[in-house]
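sorry for the late reply, my laptop died twice this morning and i had to redo everyting from scratch. anyway the thing you sent over, i finally got around to it. pasting the sequence first so we're on the same page, its 82 residues, then the predicted structure underneath. double check i copied it right bc i was rushing
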Amino acid sequence: MFINVQVGGGGLISGMSAVIKHQSPTTKIIGCQPIVSDCMRQSVRAGKIVEIPDAYSLSDATVGGIEPDAITLQYCMELVDE
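ok and here's the structure:
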């Protein structure tokens, strides 16, 4: 099974991933965010919070960065499959 979850600063996808993986470890979690604001994807690849310039998107709730010292990056690295 695959579940797509929106990504902004990572709060929603972190919480949902923790619950879903606990109940169904084989379920694949896929994060969805605009190409113009893929801060979490870049941060996961870098292994640290990456800052990117603000961008405009119709998907307003998923635009934005990760707060400094946020715990969401670690959860996304551990629990989000793609």
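The CA atoms of residues 18 and 54 lie 28 Å apart.
thats about all i looked at so far, will dig more tmrw
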